[in-house]
Each structure stands twice: as C-alpha cells, then as structure tokens.
Amino acid sequence: MSEGILIVLSAPSGCGKTTILRQVMADLPGLSFSVSHTTRQPRPGEVNGRDYHFVSHEQFKAVRDQYGFLEWAEVHGNFYGTSRQEVDSRLAAGADVILDIDVQGAEQVRRNAQPVTVFIAPPSLTELERRLRGRGTENEESLRRRLTNAKKEMQAADAYTYLIVNDRLEQAVLELKSVIIAERCRRRRAVADAEHATV
Amino acid sequence: MSEGILIVLSAPSGCGKTTILRQVMADLPGLSFSVSHTTRQPRPGEVNGRDYHFVSHEQFKAVRDQYGFLEWAEVHGNFYGTSRQEVDSRLAAGADVILDIDVQGAEQVRRNAQPVTVFIAPPSLTELERRLRGRGTENEESLRRRLTNAKKEMQAADAYTYLIVNDRLEQAVLELKSVIIAERCRRRRAVADAEHATV
Predict the structure, then answer these.
(1) A119 to chain B: which residues are within 8 Å by CB?
(2) Residue A43, φ and ψ in degrees, nearest 5
(3) SS3 for A181?
(4) Fold of B6-198
(5) Mean pLDDT of B20-41
(6) Is the Cβ of A172 closer than 8 Å to some Cβ of chain B?
C-alpha cells in the first residue's frame, strides 16, 4: 500500500472553503481530516476524538515540547495543534489527509513536512466584502477585521503550490478534486520509481 | 492573458492513449495539438497545415540546423519534427498544447523546454498483450515487437511527472483531465506571483 498525501488547505474566511471541502469529500473517497488537539473546553455536542482531542494544558505542552505538533497556535488563551502522530498514522494507512488551517499554520507544516498546499482565494476583495455582507452575520467592525485579514492572507498565497479562485462554486470543487487526483498520479509515479529501484 | 501549458503525453502502443486523448479534448476546452512537420508525402485526404506541415528535406534540415525543433526523428527515411515556433505561438495565444510523442521525443522536449509530462501505462504487460491480440490486426512478429518496445518504454516512465495506469478508461480520462486542470491551478499561482512582483 502506498502512503497517503498530506494536503494543506487555506483560505480567507468567506471564500467558501467549507462548502468546497464538504463537496469534495463527498465526491472523492480516500480523504480524511486530521482531528486537532485543543485545550479549550468541549462545547455541547462535541465528542472527544471526533471533533477534537480535548487535552489539558500540561498534556498539550508535553506534546509540543517534543515537537509532536506539525503546527500549533494559541487563540484567546486556548491552544490548538495538529498532532504529527495522528497525521502520520492516517497517511501510513493510505489515506490522504486534509489540514484545514490558516496561513501561519501552513507555514509551520511546510517546515515540518512536505505537504501539497492549496490556497482558495475570492475573485476579488470587493466580491469577498459583498459575500460577507450578504451573510448578514457580521457587524461593521468584525467585517472590517475580516477584510484586513483576508488582504494579509492573500499575500501569503505565493507560497502555496496551487491557487484556486472561487468564482463559481462548481468550478472550484472541480479544481480541488483535480488537484487531489493529479497529486495521486504524481505519487503513483514516485511509488513506481521506488518499486523499480528495488528490483 | 497567461501563457498556456506544454504537455507531453507518451504511452506504449495499445495503452488507449488515442481514445483517452480524444475524450479529454472533447471535454476540456482550451487544448490544442501541435501540427508536426514531415518530409514524407501526403496521403490521400491529408491536408497541409492541418494533418502535417509537409516540407522538403532541405526545408526540414534548415529548421533543424537552427534548433527550430523541440524534438525530431527520422523514421524509415522520413523526418518528423515538432516546430518550436508552432508550439510557442499557440502557448503565447493562451492555448495548452499537447504533444503526443514517444519516450525519445519526450526526452528531447525536456531538454528544450519545461513540459508537464504524462505517461500512460497498461495495468500490466500481460493485459497489454491481451489487448493487442484482441485487436486482431497484428501478426505474431509485429505483436512481439510491440511488446518488447512497450517493456523498454515503460522503463522510461520514471522520468515523467505523472503516471496514469489505464485500467478503466473512464478513470484514465478523469485522471488526464485532472492533471491538466491541476496544472492550470499551478500556473495560475505562478501568474499571480508575477503580477504581484510587478506591483
């Protein structure tokens, strides 16, 4: 069995990443999410090991200090991290693992592994603003903050392997699926090489 | 407008390359074939500039001696070549250009340009033999020759970016389409970089 592919997916909020990802995972077998570790309290309905691995600060720091996270961050006093062991065991089982993380997280994963990285961008900042306003869930201040963040994050798009512009949802879904299928064809070549080398 | 992608496609004969390619070109707009130069005589029905650029030996050699071919070969006393100018003008017009050439031709193109290379392999040599016999168009000697060639060509698969195994036609078509769409997402990233750099 060949090892799976590690895929990092980033997008400014409002770019439709969650919708795209949900559809791609429904269409394409063999994809799996990594379950993150967090020190925050479970919310009602959240299941340990499914939504998150809920751990204490001490447990989190013990893993972190042994370089056990591919990436981690502190948000509002809580820690979040992607465990290397969790990801490696899925990859070893042949699953392709998707990490849905921000540009800082992606940068850390790049230092610790060889991920395929995909950035999803809005067609333009104007269009992103229109979409965020359309949700009607944001006040003006939070909307401004999201747009400023989006602008900053889009400058990090250079470092990604693939750029998907979510202009039409259907096309963006096709593109993300294509990236994964194409990467499997690259991987297959690499595996054929390895088998060839052992003959 | 962004420049197109140069795609080199190779496969041992009997691997279904022509069928796969025909379906991919029907499904995916923006793909174009390069018209080869040849010194052989046109066959009935062949149109100059559509099927081949039919040229004299002198004309062919003049282009070749100015390194005007991305790849060329002599077959049974006739010359065949892919003109750099022909390919470049299509790429410049934004078309993705597919070169359907053998492993030696692919090796030459790799030295002269930066193509994306795709190798289509049969599931196994046994299956390839079954398919070639199924055609019923070959005598035993020609069949043996094709199988020996296929074996040799498959050793060159290592040098290709992508490996597609034509086990089920539908899946092979999906994979070639995915490779092209994914490469467009890579190219888009590169173009975004370039635009970013000029700001």
Answers:
(1) 189
(2) -90, 160
(3) helix
(4) Rossmann fold (3.40.50)
(5) 94
(6) no
The pLDDT tens digits of the residues spanning A47-69 come to 999 999 999 999 999 999 999 99
Which ipTM was obtained for this model? Answer: 0.87
pLDDT(B65) > 60: yes
Q: Which of B157, B181, B192 lies nearest to residue A163, judging by beta carbons?
A: B192
B194 close to A (CB below 8 A) = no
Beta bridge partners of B6: B97
Residues facing A7 on adjacent strands: A98, A116
The DSSP bridge pattern shows strands A37-38 and A78-83 to be antiparallel
Is B177 an interface residue toward A (CB < 8 Å)?
A: yes
The DSSP bridge partners found for residue A80 are A38, A73
Mean of pLDDT values over A100-114: 94
**The pair of three-digit structure tokens given for residue A187, joined into one six-digit string:** 């991987």
Q: What is the pLDDT at residue A198?
A: 47
Find which of A173, A185, A199 to mutate to test the B interface (most B CBs within 10 Å of its CB): A185
In terms of Cβ atoms closer than 10 Å to its own Cβ (0-12, 13-18, 19+), residue A134 is exposed
The whole-chain average pLDDT of chain A stands at 91
Does position A199 have pLDDT exceeding 50, yes or no? Answer: no
Q: Which of A168, A181, A187, A191 to mutate to test the interface with B (most CBs of B within 10 A)?
A: A181
3-state secondary structure chain B: CCCCCEEEEECCCCCCHHHHHHHHHHHCCCEEECCCEECCCCCCCCCECCCEEECCHHHHHHHHHCCCEEEEEEECCEEEEEEHHHHHHHHHCCCEEEEECCHHHHHHHHHHCCCEEEEEECCCHHHHHHHHHHHCCCCHHHHHHHHHHHHHHHHHHHHCCEEEECCCHHHHHHHHHHHHHHHHHHHHHHHHHHHHHHC
CA distance B63 to chain A (A): 35
Can you tell me which residue has the tokens 């923006």? B30
